[in-house]
Amino acid sequence: MDVLVLGAGGHGQVVADVLLCMHRAGDNIRILGFLDDDPRLVGGHCLELPIFGSIDSVTRIAHDAVIIGVGDNAARQRIYQAMKQLGERFAKAVHPKSVIASNVCIGEGTVICAGVVVNTGTTIGANSILNTACTVDHHNWIGNHVHIAPGAHLGGDVSVGDGVLVGIGAVVLPQRRIGEWAVIGAGAVVTKDVPPGTKVIGTPARPYP
Asked: Which residue is catalytic, options 11, 63, 95, 138?
């Protein structure tokens, strides 16, 4: 499967590296290169892979699938919706050094980085990021366009709505519910449910500002 990575910034390069690791581990996946809307990058290379042009040039390059390498959840959602309208197929990127239970469901376009652990019974939506060394325990439900940042930890039976950001090193206690597009600050400890669109920080987590 020939894949284009949409976004050549820091997270896009992480996504590309995950795909390269999958290829070296025997997966039938090949990265063609990047597309990026920064004109300063076009014509250059990242990870020895070409940056062909802007994202809207996707239809002019032969490929089998795309994957979005943009960390911001809202921007990633917009690109995802635009690609869906074009009828694009989405690759998944699952690092060979992650540990994923056999019955975990992973949505299209989702990226799972090195050191991630996802336990049994969990469902992960489309176009989400499980970043470096985060852990997702049993029977979690994670929506679309979510970012679980490096080193964050979710207990069992946690529900995470669409567009949520769980910050670096945050902890979510078992059976908590996090509403759509909420933000959990870095290092926060979530002991109570978080309403949609709410930003929380601290230990225990509380609304901010």
From this structure: 138
